[in-house]
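ingest -> validate -> predict -> emit
validate: passed (alphabet ok, no gaps, 94 aa)
predict: started
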Amino acid sequence: SADLAVTMSNAGGARDNAKKYAEAGLLQIFKKPGNNPRRRPEWVTIRKGTPEHAAVVTGDTVGDPFKDTSGPALNILIKLMTIISVVLASKFRN
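emit:
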C-alpha cells in the first residue's frame, strides 16, 4: 500500500544519509567502555573499519533498494491521483 511505500522511501533515505554522515566523521554514539565499571560512558566517533561502520554500510545496502523501488512507485501514484482529481473535480463540486 501507499503507507508501506512512504515508509520504505523514508527509511532508505535515512539509511543512506546515516552512511554519508558516518563516513564524513560526524556520527557519534554514546558507548560504554569495556568491562571497567569505574569508567563512565563517553561519546565515540564512528570511523571506517569499526563494527558500527560495517553496520551502517549494511543498512545502506538494505536501504538502497527501498529508495530505488518505492520512490518511482510513489511518483506514479501521486501523478495518477493528481490526474484523477483534476478530471473529476467538476463532478465532485456538484
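The mean pLDDT is 88.
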